[in-house]
Amino acid sequence: MQKQLREIAGPLLGLILIWIFIFALAPISRDWSSVENVLENSTGSGLFIMCCGMTIALIGNCLDLSVGSIYALASVVVGQLLKAGVPIPIAVLAGLGAGALCGIVNGTIVSRTGIPTLIATLGTQMAFRGVADMIGAGVDMEQFGKTFDWLGSGLQGPLFCSAIAFLTIWFILSKTRFGYQVFAQGGNEEVARLAGIPVKRNIVLIYMICGIMAALASIVYTARVDFAYVDRGQGWELLAIAGVVIGGTSMFGGIGGVGKTVLGVLIYESIFAGLIYLHYDAFWQQVATGVVLILAVWIDHTQRRASASRRTGVNIAKKRSLWSRVGIGS
Amino acid sequence: MLSTPDSTDFVVEMRDIVKAFPGVLALNSVNFQLRPGEVHVLLGENGAGKSTLIKVLSGAYKTDSGQILVDGAPVSINTPQDALDQGLRFIYQELSLAKNLDIARNMFLGMEPMRRTGVVNERLLYSRATEYLKRFHIDLDPTEQVSRLSVTEQKMVEIARALTTKAKVIVLDEPTDVLEDRSRKDLFQVIRQLKQEQGVAFVYISHRYAEVAEIGDRVTILRDGANVGTYEIKDLAFDKMIELMIGGEIKKQYPDLRTPSGENALRVENLIRGRILNGVSLTVKKGEIVGVTGLMGAGKTELGRAIAGVDRFDSGNIYVHEKAVRLRSPKDGIREGIAYLPEDRKGLGLIQDHSIRDNFAYPSLYRISRFGIVDQRRLDKEVSDIMTRLAIKAPDAETFAMQLSGGNQQKVVVAKWLGAQCQIMVFDEPTRGIDINGKREIYAIMEELLERGVGILMLTSDYTEALEMSHRIIVMRRGAICREFARGEATEADILREAIGEMPIAAQPASGVGAAIGGAAQ
Which tens digits make up the pLDDT trace of B245-300? Predict the structure, then answer.
């Protein structure tokens, strides 16, 4: 327990510092509603749920750049079905199923062909968005009714869905055999294979879970704004990666956890909130996203490379959280 | 082309070359002299320092101290480009041609004749290529794409390429390993012609004695990173050569290995995989260590990997406790109780930045989980038990693998396979790169494994290790078993002789041979 606390000490401290900074500079923010606002932004857009999926993907060394397109696809699938009068549970399941299917496609391509994950999922990113356009471009899909809308309304709905996503991923990663295998193959695929782990099958499962989470994220947001729209989720894969990596999960596999992702997403959204309180406009948010992402991955990367060169002949290196690099935490 | 005798007698001279790697002195003040127009063979056991010496000359490694002279003038070779500028050419075991291009383009890669406009003068390119190929009697069409050539032909193209620029020295690293008998003759023909007509000097690395005697003029023997003598080849008998390569080491004490139980733990029948394994059969008893040794590329690792299900093989049968098993993946191997412990412990034995506990868990996940959920309490208990039993020195089970010493890491590797209840363990080079104390610890672990009835197949290039730590020693050569020795039956010389596999052409009295020409280690 103490060890776990030490591991998240860095991000936690970072989060606190950001808020001290915001409170100090923007008196208007000194209110419970600003915290509530950050929580709503994190969960209501579905970003946190998507990050939960991205966490397992990055730990398993299965980078997924197609989540933004899956986000769009799931939205129009659910929208079309609800509009056609399909019962809500079935429409929701179909949306999640679409995400799962996309994930299976990703996983199959990566595990069968051995194409780098970056390229494979960049390709499917285009393809999935194309499919989404076919289903939903120019179609009017809105007003799905109160029951469905609850999933995304206020703080309760999104928080509820986020809790489900969090608990699922947490359980998988820390309790199940599959979760252990994800860490193992993300840490070193050949070691995992030699240990009898079905690496290829797991790749498909990892992408499937990531796809389902992206779809769930999309359903929450679709419910929140009460209309489905195809032009969503552009560039979201980078937001998701940023949220996960800032929390301390490695871009390079084998290290991390979904608890860290909670902090990562909160930090990310807090930076945004801070920019607004300090009256920077929306363009600055985009700049900040880019800067934060590059910074986070850079720190992760240099740390890995530095420790690799220290240990001659070893190319798997120490991949600890980026926070230990900047001197906070473990 | 011959350098003038008054300027220098040597085209390349390496003086007092020292190169150390962490924990190993790879080259200990080596002197090496190459005359113009000679074929100079470099001999030595695995790890004697041959390739390190060549890499120093090629600029791939930087020396710690020492001097390199080309045509009598000191030069500094810090990059491969420096070596090229000095007229040194290197042809490695692996082919280094751009397969998508044709022969002519490969021969002049980066040095294409240009027109004034900056485009390649193709006519000149092909006519020059034709000229060179003809001059060395290489009967190939310069417009042929390299990917369509045989391995021999590709080797020839590499040599032809080396000659397109003014090559003074060509270094050939085990060039004939991939060649058939007939094409070897072709290659030798080209070499002879070049040294006579152009005065090109060759450094020739090979293990094959017959070949060495056929093509070589002089030979330098390296042992443990030192030059133990340079000889005229015609003066050096096979036995003497073997003696020099091994050195007159005093025989070490064998530890008492307990006699195995007599039951077969593992039986392998006629294992075949492409051209790498040509029908290997062997048995390992419970509580027995069978050492498999041979030169590099003899097929040891491939054998071990096939037996553990890591690599597929074409045909052959494997029996575990006399029950036929089918192995298509490491998972099958583990199910049947066969573990493969790779040579690269840091890279492939353990996940360095995961804890001892997690590393221990990976191969046992199916055993210690129910309905897909890991029984954490049971895992914790098993980890702490095995850490006590194997005396793994670590603060706790959450310690990262990379924080452990080499010996302790090897213990964790063994622990994880014991945890997976493997009764047959294939150790690939168990002690390479480990210091004396670490070795002792690992041997102790192996002895303990024997007491538990584990059968061990130990793949090793270290003949001393094979002799000291095996009940039986199997020598492999080119994918097949060529000889089996009982414990205490063989000496290092016997093993090396079998591993090289070629008998002396001219038998000479063992004493008084080999007039040292100079260049012996200081």
Answer: 877 654 444 567 777 877 889 999 988 998 888 889 999 999 999 999 988 778 88
- Alpha-carbon distance of A215 to A211, in angstroms, equals 6
Q: Do the domain assignments include residue A13?
A: no
Domain ranges of chain B: 1-87+167-251+504-522, 102-165, 264-490
ipTM field: 0.82
Alpha-carbon gap: B421 to the closest alpha carbon of chain A (Å): 12
Q: Which residue of chain A comes nearest to B400, CA vs CA?
A: A318
DSSP A196: T
B362 touches chain A (CB under 8 A): yes
Q: Are A23 and A29 in contact (CB under 8 A)?
A: yes
Question: Which CATH number covers residue A69?
Answer: 1.10.3470
pTM higher than 0.80? no
Separation CA A303–CA A297 (nearest Å): 10
- The nearest CA of chain A is from the CA of B10 a distance in Å of 36
Return contacts of B482-488, CB within 8 angstroms, 24+ apart.
B487/B254, B487/B257, B488/B254
Cβ pairs A/B, distance under 8 A: 98
What fold is seen in the domain B1-87+167-251+504-522?
Answer: Rossmann fold (3.40.50)
- Residue B13 makes CB contacts below 8 A (sequence gap 6+) with B32, B33, B34, B68, B69, B70, B72
Domain span holding position A286: 31-322
Q: d(Cα B433, Cα B313) in Å, to the nearest integer?
A: 29
First to last CA, chain A: 14
Q: Is residue A201 part of a domain?
A: yes
Confidence of residue A304 (pLDDT cuts 50, 70, 90): low
Provide the CATH number for the domain formed by B264-490 in this structure.
3.40.50.300
Chain A residues whose CB is inside 8 A of the B416 CB are 195
Burial of B453 (0-12, 13-18, 19+ CB in 10 A): middle
Is the Cβ–Cβ distance between B267 and B322 less than 8 Å?
yes
Name the H helices within B420-500: 436-451, 463-469, 492-500
